[in-house]
Amino acid sequence: GLRTGTGSDSSAEGTFQVTMLPGDGVGPELMHAVKEVFKAGNVPVTFDEHHLSEVQNTASEEKLDRVVDSMKESKVALIGKIHTPMEYKGDLASYDMRLRRKLDLFANVVHVKSLPGYQTRHNNLDLVIIREQTEGEYSSLEHESVKGVIECLKIITRAKSQRIAKFAFDYATKKGRAKVTAVHKANIMKLGDGLFLQCCKEVAELYPKIKFDTMIIDNCCMQLVQNPYQFDVLVMPNLYGNIVDNLAAGLVGGAGVVPGESYSAEYAVFELVRRGSPRGTVPNLPVRAGILGGLEYHSNMVSDAVKKVIKGGKVRTRDLGGYSTTSDFVKSVIDNLHPHYGA
Length: 343
Known about the structure:
Layout: E1 16-21, H1 27-40, E2 45-49, H2 61-74, E3 76-79, H3 95-103, E4 107-113, E5 126-132, E6 142-146, E7 149-152, H4 158-174, E8 179-184, H5 192-204, E9 211-216, H6 217-226, E10 233-236, H7 238-251, E11 260-263, E12 268-271, H8 296-312, H9 326-335
Parallel strand pairs: 1-2, 1-3, 3-12, 5-10, 8-9, 8-10
Antiparallel strand pairs: 4-5, 4-11, 6-7, 11-12
């Protein structure tokens, strides 16, 4: 659970401090939505806000350190999308990536679940994608070995593969899930993905109650489209996870309705939007993701209100095929927060 205020001036007694990074694009608008809903629901959270944006040139090493200091206190953060420019400016690692490394956010969890009342091609889906997110192809180790030849290193280590595998099996155990599927390309990358796969197999033996199977990434993509119901928890290296996350989000309604969560041994970071969320996105109120460890009551209250609005089907944001704005949606959620008080 979260600790209560540690007497720092920002947190009154009994409130939780949460670090907030609105980021770019729809981020700030959605953060505003979260603040409105939390205020209306008297959710005892104070936000410690930091602005970090590469495209608006407000990103610096010093800012990053301030975010890390804030995290050391709050242990929980809410972040928008930190847009990473394509062009190379002398540093290969994006700020997004550097923050992950500084906090050692090794596990990314995406819970892909159908929203009751919102019809998509597949309904009643409920699967979880867990990816390692500190190494693999995201190691920022690229160089031009000879003119016109780039070497881009994908790093796979035993330690990090075992750690993510253990995380996946622990998650499955805690959430009462029956099966973990390791996704890989070990038929081609025999050593790298081979090591990842080997680590998953070793860890699986320590969890005899949970079914374990393996699947090659290309087949996995086809299976996700043809019969996503066969999956429960999937665990994979960085890049595959990033791609499969988005494919799976598309199965239940797109980038706006699937929040991401990242964990280290001591921190939890909740991402409001996936890459490419359109304007007028459902504010993915991260309470759905259980941001509020010690706030069961508030968490359920907000989450129920969001589900009610979606199920009612009257207020639909553009990403869900409607014409409502994010603020219409927020207003509707707030109206549903305390239905039992009459009105």
